[in-house]
Amino acid sequence: MRSGVEVAPNIAAAAALIREAAGKGATFIATPEMTNLLDIRPGMARPKIVEQDDIPLHAFQALAAELRVTLLIGSLAVTLEGEERFANRSFLIGPDGGVIARYDKIHMFDVEVGDGQSYRESRAYRPGEAAMLAAAPFGKVGMTICYDLRFPHLYRRLAQAGAEILTIPAAFTRVTGEAHWHVLVRARAIETGSFVIAPAQGGKHEDGRETFGHSLIVAPWGDVLAEAGGAEPGIILADLDLDEVAKARGRIPSLGNEREFSVTTSGS
User: Taking Cα atoms as reference points, which of 61, 81, 86 lies closest to residue 71?
Assistant: First the structure.
């Protein structure tokens, strides 16, 4: 996607892509981080989020029920009771339209990325405190968001808890995406022996941000099953055989070979 600064057009754009994917046979469909709104201009996003808080989720619940698909809305900016900050929240919605699981992004993107812009996500968003392993109709899904990708222990914990598919909806900047996106997504798949589904924002957005795109679907052995050609909006499709998870973990049983250790320092 290339989410803009108004909620309604973003819902419409996402719905059109979801319908296209369902029409081509997809039964599990995932959208990027910040599906409902992407606006980093100071003070501009808040009124829109507050005014239209429940509208995106309800719209996507109705769409999942209509199409009879499992739908991961990569994330929505949602209000929090008694909080000035919002949550960056991912929703897994079942084919009946019910919410199976919610996950609030744990790791906040507070960095200088080298493209002349700084990001302080923690100013506007409250970090989540718990990982989420969700039972989807087809298997177990470990839910994460964007900057979480740089914290491999999160994915290891999810895989050790039983995750077969890891979701990484993202809005990676162009600079960081060009440098690290492919290698990090493939690494998380290889390290955990899991499928990774990583839908991404892409292109030059209305608020001035530029995101990398290149949505990916990666197999447990690290093979890229599908990749978006660049930053243009669209869909990618792949068939997932969850038996491949057990095969990959059987070949490299690193999840069970982990040992506790201490770090010793020497010298001055």
Answer: 61
CATH number, position 98:
3.60.110.10
Sign of the Cα pseudo-torsion (24, 200, 166, 124, in order): negative
Catalytic residue among 6, 146, 178, 247: 146
Q: Considering 6, 105, 164, 204, which one is annotated as catalytic? A: 105
Does residue 262 lie within any of the structural domains?
A: no
Encode pLDDT of 209-241 as tens digits.
999 999 999 999 999 999 998 889 999 999 999
Q: Which of 33, 121, 140, 164 is catalytic?
A: 33
Does the active-site annotation cover 33?
yes
The Cα–Cα gap between 210 and 115 comes to 10
Q: What domain range includes position 97? A: 7-256
CB 109 within 8 A of CB 130: no
Q: Is 204 considered catalytic here?
A: no
Which pLDDT does position 114 carry in this prediction? 64
Per the domain annotation, does 98 fall within a domain?
Answer: yes
Question: Is 54 part of a structural domain of the chain?
Answer: yes
Task: Quote the pTM value.
Answer: 0.95
Residue 244 falls in the annotated catalytic set: no
User: Can you list the positions of beta strands (E) in the chain?
Assistant: 28-30, 70-79, 86-93, 99-104, 110-112, 118-120, 132-136, 139-143, 165-167, 195-198, 202-204, 210-212, 216-218, 224-227
Quote the number of domains for the chain: 1
Residue 130 in any domain: the answer is yes
Reference 80, options 41, 51, 50; nearest CA is 50
What's the rounded Cα separation, in Å, for the pair 220 and 237? 16
Residues 6+ apart with CB under 8 A from 209: 38, 40, 117, 171, 173
